[in-house]
């Protein structure tokens, strides 16, 4: 599969080894073209204009919602367009949890959360007097033994926030099993799953997972920045309050008050990122046209090759498409800078997961994260770069 040719950035930089897909993925030509088409040919506002180009914009925007819904096995009315995973989780925290949780209630999170699925809960906990508990790590996996869960989950646990795929360790959490287990102890727990690192790498059917909310970003699945999704179960969305009040989310307004529009429109106050939503719809088409079988096969081949080639060159941790490298004697920022000199893009730092790094006993790490266009040639460049780092920095014991 010649996937690189579908991405215009590789025409400009044919030798680029882009291995920072956990941060954001590159964009295929068809997504860029589709967005360009909106901005060039029918860049009117949606849901308001009674004229051709506005109607076209509305149709394309709503058709993107239908594609996203189909992509995750949901109904279009359960898909809320947001600005990204962070905005989606904040909508759950401010729109659902703020209204439904009270002083003394508990929220269960995991020790591998991205700040975007931790800080909104910490903020809410501070405001409302809630307690946050952490599902612990066991190596790079979560400890979900009955004993641990029995100690953490009780009738006060009202909410669970959990990442599906760790953005540092690549761990694919068995969210369905975990949800089943926690809901068995307390069926009233409302679960929000952070799917930011999952949606580009595996088929997701939200209803099978048993979650109440599912959040993800367009830009990590070959779509544009500035667009994301919150899926919610119908009953949960009915209990959720909008956070953006104003134009676009009302049915009727008088001087005395207002009546909200139906779901999902009441959650999309103000002009949404129209071209970006349309671009996300095209990203869904891109993934579906490649097909999960080929996508997963390509990614598995690439990470297996990396696992084989790394040998003793660096300590590598992680599952699947995301790995962190720990190199004795070299700071991750130095590693990333040297890799940049050979055209390899990786991430250095805490990857918005400081508590997880503290748990792992690391100040920072170098992260390699793969996408469907990565292949053995990228791994070879990475390995060449790591050898260069070793030559400069890593001292023999
Ligand atoms: C697991 C996880 N959750 C949440 C986010 C936040 O996504 P966004 O910045 O698109 O809101 C990220 C982004 O790195 C992530 O990896």
UniProtKB/TrEMBL annotation:
Coiled coil spans? none
User: Under the GO molecular function aspect, what terms does this record hold?
Assistant: cysteine desulfurase activity; lyase activity; pyridoxal phosphate binding
Write down the required cofactor(s): pyridoxal 5'-phosphate
One GO biological process term: cysteine metabolic process
Tagged with keyword Transferase: yes
SUPFAM superfamilies linked? PLP-dependent transferases
Keyword Glycoprotein part of the UniProt annotation: no
Keyword annotations for this protein, in alphabetical order, are: Lyase, Pyridoxal phosphate, Transferase
Q: Reaction catalysed?
A: (sulfur carrier)-H + L-cysteine = (sulfur carrier)-SH + L-alanine
Question: What Pfam family is a match for this entry?
Answer: Aminotran_5
EC identifiers of the protein: 2.8.1.7
Entry-linked Gene3D superfamilies: Aspartate Aminotransferase, domain 1, Type I PLP-dependent aspartate aminotransferase-like (Major domain)
Q: Which residues form the Aminotransferase class V domain?
A: 18-382
Tell me which family the UniProt entry assigns to this protein.
Belongs to the class-V pyridoxal-phosphate-dependent aminotransferase family. Csd subfamily.
Q: Return the NCBIfam families for the record.
A: sufS
Q: This protein is called what?
A: cysteine desulfurase
Lineage of the species this protein comes from: Bacteria, Candidatus Shapironibacteriota
